[in-house]
Amino acid sequence: MAEDIFRRIRKENSKMNMNFTAEIYNEALIMIEDLCLEIANKVLNQLGMPSPNRSAAASFDVELCREQNYNTGDLLSYVQSNIPKLTLEQKGIYDQIMQTVNNGVGEIFFLDAPGGTGKTFLIRLILAAIRFQNDIALALASSEIAATLLPGGRTAHSALKLPLNLQFIETPTCNISKASGMGKVLQKCKLIVWDECTMAYKKSLEALDRSLQDLRGNIRPFGDALILLAGDFRQTLPVIPRSTPEDEINACLKYSTLWRHVNTLKLTTNMRVQLQNDRSAEIFSHQLLEIGNGKVLVDLTSGRVSLPHSFCNLVTSKEELVEKVFPNIQTNYKNHDWLSERAILAAKNKDVYELNNIIQSNIQSEAVTYKSVDTVVEADEG
Ligand SMILES: Nc1ncnc2c1ncn2[C@@H]1O[C@H](COP(=O)(O)OP(=O)(O)OP(=O)(O)O)[C@@H](O)[C@H]1O
To answer: Can you give the residue ranges of the DNA helicase Pif1-like DEAD-box helicase domain (predicted)?
Structure first.
């Protein structure tokens, strides 16, 4: 267990010159003791093992080291080379946020950015501009994929230790103490970015709000921290299994009392269109916005929209779709670059399984079954 912790810490702090330390053994003892308490309601001492030092664990600020462990020289050159590229719209938002950071005042911004308008580009620059001054900018996202797009990005659930059964708790909080590494990060940080916040349950942001108020000893929204929320309400809203659309809308951030404190900033120019000067990309992005903005008629009986004429290529079966996206998969499947450029997205697991079966049945090779575990692990391991 101690070796797992050691590997995890080395991975999280790739540039930290860290050796095996007594604190790592201590963290392992704490984890073992937590399990024993849960299973047998006994501390390690009662089971003939050494007791962990709980206060020493609090001073083991891995989280704090992680957030301050950036190469400032690299960040400075990144900032200097990318600021001149910002469009007027992006520069206006960059300046407003950096000014608020430098003034040290609390504010809640929402960056309303349809796909392709340079939201990720801008956020990466803001993170770098804060970090190169040796200040902390915490990058969170609602999904793992979005988290990987931001340097130092982590899922909000894992970083904030949000309860897994959030929706059933009246007033959830983050499971973070003042003395913990993450508690210190949240007290010190100059900015918290939460990308794809539009997918998060409003209760997860409310939990962060409560915890920041407590950690920072300030009863203003989010403890007067500077928060940059980003996302697009035209895209996926919080997913609640077996719920109605009303439940999903009610779970979303706009229906939180926090929303009235939010200052919305907008990005509107599609950079993919602008940079490539591609007319068809422009038409496609316009059509996407029309759908997202509810301008396309919905069939009231089925609840579906009819896709605009020339919006995309339509196919008549899953087999045809597989053939279009993965032509000649029998031989191409060995080419990883080819594979990494294509994917089929489906809204339901049922369709994912069916599509996977069709693709796999086209590949003539020996089938290997790997075991997997799908139980929930500790929130901080997720
Ligand atoms: N000012 C800029 N100068 C040069 N390239 C830019 C600029 N803004 C954005 N880009 C590029 O445009 C593309 C789209 O930007 P980005 O990925 O940041 O958009 P996004 O709003 O996050 O889109 P999505 O939500 O679809 O991921 C990227 O390749 C990005 O590097």
So the answer is: 85-296
The SS3 of residue 314 is coil
Domain boundaries, the chain: 2-60, 69-271, 278-312, 317-382
85 in ligand 1 pocket by Cβ < 6 Å?
A: yes
d(CA 262, CA 38): 41
Q: Which residue is closest in CA terms to ligand 1's atom 29?
A: 272
Write down the CATH number for the domain with range 69-271.
3.40.50.300
> Does residue 311 line the site of ligand 1, with CB under 6 A?
no
**Tokens describing residue 42:** 């006994």
Q: Does residue 234 have its Cβ closer than 6 Å to ligand 1?
A: no
Residue 232 alpha carbon, nearest atom of ligand 1: 25
Its sign, for the CA torsion 361, 365, 369, 370, is negative
Question: Would you say the CB of residue 275 lies under 6 angstroms from ligand 1?
Answer: yes
Cβ-based neighbour number of residue 337 at 10 Å: 6
Alpha-carbon dihedral 53, 54, 57, 58, rounded to 10 degrees: -140
In angstroms, what is the span from residue 122 Cα to ligand 1's centroid? 8
- Residues of the chain with pLDDT > 70: what percent? 93
353-377, pLDDT tens digit by residue? 999 999 999 988 888 888 876 666 6
- Model pLDDT for residues 261-312, shown as the tens digit of each residue: 999 999 999 898 888 888 888 888 888 888 888 888 888 888 888 887 788 8
**Does the CB atom of residue 285 touch ligand 1 within 6 A?**
no
Q: What is the distance in A from the centroid of ligand 1 to the CA of 115?
A: 9
Q: Which residues of 179-194 are buried (b: 16+ CB within 10 A; e: fewer)?
A: ebbbbbbbeebbbbbb
